Amino acid sequence: MRRVSLAVAVLALAACAPKEQPADTTATAAPPAPTIALSDVAGVWTARVMREGSDSTILTYELNASADPTAWTITFPGRPPVAVRPTVDGDSIMTEAGPYESALRKGVQVTTRGVVRLVNGELVGTTTGHYQTTGADSVSTFRVVATKKM
After folding, report:
1. 80 strand-pairing partners
2. Pairing between strand 82-89 and 73-75?
3. Angle at 42 between CA 110 and CA 113, to 5 degrees
4. Of 17, 30, 51, 123, which residue is 20 to 30 A from 139 by alpha carbon distance?
5. Around Cβ 75, how many Cβ atoms within 10 Å?
6. pLDDT per position in the chain (150 positions), as tens?
7. Nearest in space to 65 (alpha carbons), one of 79, 83, 50, 78
8. CB 111 within 8 A of CB 98
9. DSSP string covering 73-136
């Protein structure tokens, strides 16, 4: 009789134990971030530079973009082209240029690092300028909006 009682108790406990739920196969993974290639933005762009929080253009330049990362340049009015080093990560193009003479601070060397994304046919992003001064390094961040020339 004890064995029967013990068997009934074990079966009752097994019946009450939580059951393992099957994996939810209806859930979908997040879609991958859209990617961009340098060839997607190849061409000549007119870029406007603005201070953070402002829509007033303080500087313009021409961006020559190419599928070839060694061919990228920026050209400020009345100045020779400056080489740009682009890299791609997902939907973003990171750029680095310099050091070169700043178009905003006469006689001061600057190195810029930025990131842009293609948004509604424009390259939109930010650029940070690291200015080489006699004291500590001086840093400024700017907004950039570039429109492709036709």
Report:
1. none
2. antiparallel
3. 20
4. 123
5. 14
6. 555 555 445 445 455 555 666 665 566 777 666 699 999 999 999 999 999 999 999 999 999 999 999 999 999 999 999 999 999 999 999 999 999 999 999 999 999 999 999 999 999 999 999 999 887 769 999 999 999 996
7. 83
8. yes
9. EEE-TTS--EEEEEEEETTEEEEEEEEEE-SSSTT-EEEEEEEEEEETTEEEEEEEEEEE-SSS
Q: Which runs of consecutive H residues, i.e. helices, occur in 26-65?
A: none
Contact call for residues 69 and 86 (beta carbons, < 8 A) = yes
Question: Which residues in 34-51 are b (16+ Cβ under 10 Å) and which e?
Answer: eebebeebbeebebbbee
pTM: 0.76
Query: Which residue's structure tokens are 């859930």?
Result: 27
